[in-house]
Design a protein that fits this description.
Helix 1 (2-20) packs antiparallel against helix 2 and helix 2 (67-134) packs antiparallel against helix 3 (139-152). 66% of the residues lie in helices and 14% in strands. The longest helix is centred in the middle third of the chain and has 68 residues, at 67-134. By secondary structure, it is an alpha+beta fold. Among the domains are: 24-60, no CATH class; 122-152, no CATH class.
Length: 153
């Protein structure tokens, strides 16, 4: 998510750069150096001279056949794509959280149901034992009751 936000900001900056490229622009460069322009190579290090350079480049857009507007549109599309990826990531996080909460609730419900089934099976076994002791049910019925209790756990 953090990387998507970084990409979004970078795309915003690129869009602003693209918008600014159409305007008049001038680059100015200065350089200084030392060189030896001596035809005799034995004295090349003995007497160097200073050199100065000034370079000016000017850009004046006249007509670009719609290239600038197409570049701006492409930058906006890239920005929209990044925004959609951010929305998709947020939606994915939300749905993952909702699914995890739902799974936890279902697990809790299943655990409660199992606990209630175990309690009922225990009560059934206890009542079957009492009935057996009174002689109301046969030993086979008592064993089946205990078997149900074991199957429940």
């Amino acid at each position: 998510m953090r990387q998507l936000n970084i990409n979004f900001r970078e795309n915003e900056i690129r869009l602003e750069e693209t918008k600014g490229r159409r305007g008049f622009r001038m680059d100015l460069a200065f350089s200084y150096g030392r060189e030896a322009q001596d035809p005799i190579f034995d004295r090349i290090r003995a007497d160097p001279t200073n050199t100065y350079t000034v370079e000016v480049n000017a850009y004046l857009p006249i007509w670009d056949w719609g290239e600038h507007s197409c570049r701006i549109a492409a930058s906006r599309i890239g920005l929209d794509q990044t925004r959609l990826r951010i929305d998709q990531a947020e939606q994915s996080i939300r749905s993952d959280v909702v699914n995890q909460v739902r799974n936890a609730e279902e697990f809790g419900d299943r655990a409660l149901a199992m606990e209630q089934n175990l309690l009922l099976a225990t009560e059934l076994s206890a009542s079957s034992l009492e009935l057996y002791l009174q002689g109301s049910i046969a030993a086979l019925d008592l064993l089946q009751s205990f078997r149900r209790q074991v199957d429940t756990t």
